[in-house]
Design brief:
This protein is mostly helical. 68% of the residues lie in helices and 0% in strands. It is built from 14 helices and no strands. The longest helix is centred in the middle third of the chain and has 18 residues. It is globular.
């Protein structure tokens, strides 16, 4: 397992360095306000560079998957290496491991140590969300704990992890996560609340409209505006 993990991680790092564009690195770092430097590999180039690496270098079990993700993440010198770790965590070939409840400690580590929206949003929606959908009863209590955690990125994860679940959204859990954070003045939490509501409005606009009305005094203007952005106003019936 160790040799397979090492080969995969080394190959990923080599591929990213080969695709680096030093002229793009600093503008990318500045845009993301990142202390960690960039190589200058935008997403399309990163995808192209990593696809053959991940096809050729595979791990055989859940322990290998976990080790590869964490070694690539924790040993990263450049931000693209951490993006690669997130991509690796979400590959379909590892879905059997990635969607088990015990994968949550991997995602929690990425959220807390990544501590910025580019990492957190991807992990929350495309990693935590599928685990919640597959193992709701085991994972919902974890989401509830995260919603009240001291770490704002765990709390944002709890708020937005159901984005994209459509008809599988647990509205009671969504409401609880929002209500736990509705008075927080943090921009990322307020934006996340609005985003989560706006996305669910695509499936159930009536629920979102009612939730916003019931929490009118508590929701920030940003959260309300985002929540209702794509909802047509209720029809007005005139009576003769």
């Amino acid at each position: 397992m160790v040799s397979a993990v090492t080969a995969l991680v080394d190959a990923a790092r080599t591929a990213l360095r080969a695709a680096a564009d030093p002229a793009a690195a600093e503008p990318m770092r500045a845009y993301m306000k990142s202390a960690m430097p960039f190589l200058g590999v935008p997403k399309p180039a990163r995808t192209a560079a990593l696809r053959p690496v991940f096809a050729e270098h595979r791990v055989d079990d859940g322990d290998g998957w976990r080790a590869a993700v964490l070694v690539l993440w924790d040993g990263a010198e450049f931000r693209e290496e951490r993006y690669a770790a997130v991509t690796l965590a979400q590959l379909k070939q590892y879905a059997a491991y990635a969607t088990r409840p015990d994968a949550l400690d991997v995602y929690d580590h990425l959220v807390v140590t990544g501590a910025w929206w580019d990492f957190v949003d991807e992990v929350a929606i495309r990693s935590v969300g599928p685990v919640l959908r597959a193992h709701h009863d085991a994972v919902a209590p974890v989401v509830r704990r995260w919603a009240r955690d001291d770490d704002r990125w765990r709390r944002r994860t709890a708020v937005i992890c159901q984005v994209g679940l459509k008809g599988d959204v647990d509205t009671a859990l969504l409401a609880e996560a929002i209500e736990a954070n509705v008075h927080d003045k943090d921009f990322f939490l307020r934006k996340g609340i609005g985003w989560a509501l706006r996305q669910h409005a695509k499936t159930d606009p009536g629920w979102v409209r009612a939730f916003v009305a019931a929490h009118e005094a508590d929701l920030s203007p940003l959260s309300r505006r985002e929540a209702l952005r794509n909802i047509d106003p209720p029809s007005i019936v005139t009576r003769g």
